[in-house]
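I keep forgetting this: the sequence line spells out the residues, with the fold written below as integer tokens. I include a record here:
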Amino acid sequence: MLASPRRRMAAISASTIRARIIPAFAVVLVLAMLALLGWAMFAPKSQTVSQDGRIDAPGVFVPIKGRMAPNFALVDFSGQNIALKEFRGKTVVLNFWASWCDSCKAEAPLLSHVAPTLDPNKTVILGIDALDAKADGQQFMQQYGLTFRSAFDASGSVAVDYGISGMPETFIISPSGKLVGKFFGAITKPEQVTEAVAAAESAG
């Protein structure tokens, strides 16, 4: 039985639509893939994913307002107890690092250079070696000449409390114990620290 003219026209129309849509869809797909490839090749460095699996945005400071910094009680690498509340009344530069973090290796000498230039009566830099082997952390401190006090957070519980997304991250805490902001990725210039400390002192 022959199909009616109306059915033949419907079949022809459907075939024509498919013939037009499929090539168009293929073109759009190819263009999208090329655009993605171009972004991966030419995106600014601050937008690319680093080897440690995070967005690499060195030196980007993000303000934080209205939150108290989580307290912690750890043991530093000399075997002494250390708690954040001990430093109330001072600006705290809290740096999370690990021996396996390549960006930390570049940042450590800079922070070690900055630490002695800060007024110890007003500001302190503290390090927290998180999710690391203690022996590796000790070797890291010696190799990169850390001049600031660092504690060991084997379980990463303090890092979790602060909500870090990768290493390194540095939090600026005001003398009243409030979070002022944090640096995503490695700090690359000494003035980044001094400017953030000034902002924390102004915040009180």
